[in-house]
Amino acid sequence: MSAPDLETSELTLTGRITSASNATFLGTIGDLEVVYKPVAGESPLWDFPHGTLAGREVASYLVSEVFGWDIVPRTWLRDGPLGEGMVQLWQEQDPVHSAVNLVATDQVPTTGWKQVLEGQDEDGRMVALIHEDTPALRRMAVFDVVVNNADRKGDHILAMTGGHRHGVDHGLTFHSDHKLRTVLWGWLGEPLTAEELEGIDRVSEELHGGLGQDLANLLSTGEIASIARRCAQLRLARRFPGPSGDMPALPWPLF
Known about the structure:
Layout: E1 11-16, E2 25-29, E3 32-38, H1 53-67, E4 75-78, E5 85-89, E6 100-104, E7 113-120, E8 126-132, H2 135-147, E9 157-159, E10 165-167, H3 194-206, H4 210-215, H5 221-237
Antiparallel strand pairs: 1-2, 2-3, 3-5, 4-5, 6-8, 7-8, 9-10
Helix pairs in contact: 3-5
């Protein structure tokens, strides 16, 4: 039996993710499970042009592919039961592990984790926001800077069995203005590795080639230029940047 054509085979809806701020559905294409976000279900935003979030998700996948780190699962645009939208291959994450967590401040691990902040929970207990200190998560933090991710919540990081980490929900990306909001601030100021710098160089170079041509169908000229600018700034600094500007540095809610 041949594999289904992901672009044209029937997309059947099987459920809805009601916690999402935009219309988000579970579905199948043949035997493959997918996530489907129709453009018609996008909620208007004050700072992102309406009807562009699906395209930004696809653009994030294209940049991820050039990085070569398999951060964003296969993502594409196609027609569906509710019109054109973003479709992404479903990823079954490890039910035991989490890459980002809230723990009591006296239970922060001494190794293998980075603490981002501490504060009080709704019951007045002191808690700390922590994330893994792993190469996979570092690469995702670099990716987020380049795509200007304005919504890297803890639950947008999928901990896969075997240690790989996927990032999902990339509709709020590629704005020309600084919008970086993320829970992955643990490496602030630390030097970038040779591998991370090489990934940035690949994206920068491909903006003048196939990647730039593909992104031209999904983003504005100014937004593509801003990708190049962020790559150049990262390459010059050779370090993880810190928060800047007047925008909050963390998404809300955190998860």
